[in-house]
Every structure is written in structure tokens, then in C-alpha cells.
Amino acid sequence: MRSYKPEELFDAQGRLLPELAELAPKGDRRMGANPHTNGGLLLRDLCMPDYCDYAVDVPSPGAAQASDTFVAGQFLRDVIKLNLEPRNFRIFGPDETVSNRLEAVFETTNRQWDADTAENDQFLAPSGSVMEMLSEHQCEGWLEGYLLTGRHGLFNSYEAFIHIVDSMFNQHAKWLKMTQEIPWRRKIASLNYLLTSTVWRQDHNGFTHQDPGFMDHVINKKSSIVRVYLPPDANCLLSVMDHCLRSRHYVNVMVAGKHPAPQWLTMDAAIKHCAEGIGIWKWASSDKDSEPDVVMACCGDVPTLETLAAVSILRQHLPELKIRVVNVVDLLKLERQTEHPHGLSDADFDSLFTKNKPVIFAFHGYPWLVHRLTYNRANNSNMHVRGYKEEGTITTAFDMTVLNEMDRFHLAMDVLDRLPQLGNKGAYLKQLLKDKLVEHRHFINQNGEDMPEIRNWTWNA
Asked: CB within 8 A of 320, min separation 6: which ones?
């Protein structure tokens, strides 16, 4: 210890010599007080375009088709454009920005790239607002550093491969939770994930690209930090994305499709629906002014499509049936308000799902996640959830739902199984639905595509 020559550092009373104490940084030069280590001090609001300007025109439910993420890409293009001067917004992700249908951003910016380029390279430049590298954990690290130093960002990824950053997400969520409790720490911009190329639309990639389980992982973290959104169409995605990009100190997970799909809500309706996070779709329901016989719930774009198709079958063949359709955008609305700040009270939950009627719930992810969120609700024993159950291959889009028994025919049969009072009417319709499943299997084996009545289906109240 004497080799450190303490007599040159301390006085006789053991105090650090004043001239040495003076060398320590002061004020903002101190490591913990440097604004770059407390990014909220440097954070500036994004300049945001009006997301309503990008709305899809929806004359009536299902009458328009659009790619949800392509529409969102046009919005993100202009978020980048409006923030080029402050240089405080970037999009991060593996080499999937174009694949995820966000290619409109390249009308405004390039991928930042400091290495050599070849003649056939696209959108590569020494300066750009898109950071791409086929390494999810590298992109996650970049984005976390970007947020921690007072900027804003978005991570876009194939849904199945975001799991690569599970442990990094863990640590960031824990850091957000703890710094929330430190008064001198300023809030930073939220960590925003856009997950697409989802489990239900992997007809050319197959089983390896089918995993919706990141949601299960995320909701383990503190309820004051995590948010999970599954907008059913493009207008809802625009509303949700605007909200997430403006938010502070959260982890926001948005799950959306990239393939052309039916559009359900006008922008005005989408704004209201997303603000509430959950609600009855009156235009799809037939229980107004009466008790429903069954509640058909859905969460996610493909589950919404299949639920509405099932409802149309039931309303055609059993017009006397009272059906309530409930759509969920904000997944954590399903929890009790005592467990999550977005959660519904028991009274509000029961007003949507009833206390004693069967609920057929089509869910984007693993079914048990919904059971987990609703286990202590009054009607939990009547909650019958269909979702992804690890069945998949390279097959047609509709066949993915059939393999996991979340298709319109299985959903409609589930209703019939829960309503024995339908008697012979229910028995004959169930036989028709079973026949349709056999017809579907034979058709795709012969033709390699879904039946015309599936591909061309439209909502008709």
C-alpha cells in the first residue's frame, strides 16, 4: 500500500490535499451530471406531421385494401424529413426496412453507410437516418444509446427475430423502471418496436419465421413501463404510431401486418377506437338493445379478419343469433386496472365481455397470454381463446389460420359448440363448416392457393 505514496496525496489528518481535490470536474463536467448521461436534459420534442394526412379512405368497413406498414412508412418518411435539421430521429433494424414495406423513408433519407459501395447498392450514403445491419443486438444497442443521449428512434423487425434482443430489452426496461424513481433523472424518449412480417403471413418463409412470443416476454416487465398495441388496420396503426413516437419513458411494442389487407375504420373512428384501446364494433354486431348470445373478440389484424368472416357466416345462417364483436388494440386493457394503468375496471370489462356469456377470442399470439391477462375476471371460465399454437409451414395465408384452428370456420364452430340451444340449426351449420375445411384442404393441395371465396371475401353486413 505504501507504494501508492499516500503521504503525497493526504495531509496528516487523512484529508485529500486541496490542490488534488481541485482537479475533480465540476458541474456538468462530472460524469453523473454530464447532460449526455442524462439524455432527458437534451431531449427535444419531435416535429410531427399530422398523421391524419396519411389516412386510408375507408368508404365502408372492409371496402378498401392497404398495406398497414406501407402507409405507416409514408408517415415515417415525413417524420424524418421534418427532423433533418435537429438530426434527432432514426430508424434502426436489420436489413428489412424495404421488406417490412417502409421503403417510402428512402424518398427522404439513405442508410448511413461508411464502407465501400457497389454499383447495384441502394440508398447507401455517408449520412442517413436509417441504420441497418443484419444484427438485431447491434441495432438494439445503437438505438438504446441514441435514446439515452436524448434522441428519438424506432426499431423495425421481423416479429420472429426480435427475440434476439430479449435480454437487452430486459435491461433497458429495468433501467427505465429504476430511473423513474430518481428525481434528478429526466425522462427519455420511449423505446419503440414495430414488429411486422408476422406469424400469420409467412407463406414463403415457413415455420422458422413464425413466433409471436415477444409480447409474452414484454408484459413481464413493470406495468408502468410496458405497452403493447395490435392495431387492426392502417388508420389505427397511424394513430398508435403517432402516440408512441410522442411518448416518454416507455417500451412500446406495435404489431402490424405488411401485406395488403381489408381496412375497417375511417380515421375518425380509428382515433376514437385507439384512444379507448378496446371497444364494441357496433357495425359488426347484432346485439344492440339486447343481451348477446355470444361475444366474438379479436386482437390483431388477421384475427380481426377471421373473426369478421366468422361473424358473417353466423349472421347469414343464424340471423336470429345475437353477436357482439369486441376489438382490442391495447392488449393490456385486458388486465385489471390494479395491475396495469391501462387496465379496465371489472365493471367496464364485464360490460364488454359480460359475466356469463361465451367469449370466442381470436388472438394474434399464443392463446395462454390472454388467459393469463384475464384469469381473475368474472367471466374467465367462458373465455375460449384461439391463437398461434406452434403449427406452421410454407403454406397459404389462410391455411396458416386453419393449421392453428383460428380460421373463420373453426371460430364459427366454436360458437356452435358453446350454444347447444341452437339445436338442429347448429348441427347442420357445423357440418357445412366441416365440409368447408375439407374443401379448403383439397383446393390448396391441387392449386397452391386459397379458395376464391377466401381470397375475395369482403365484409357484407
From this structure: none
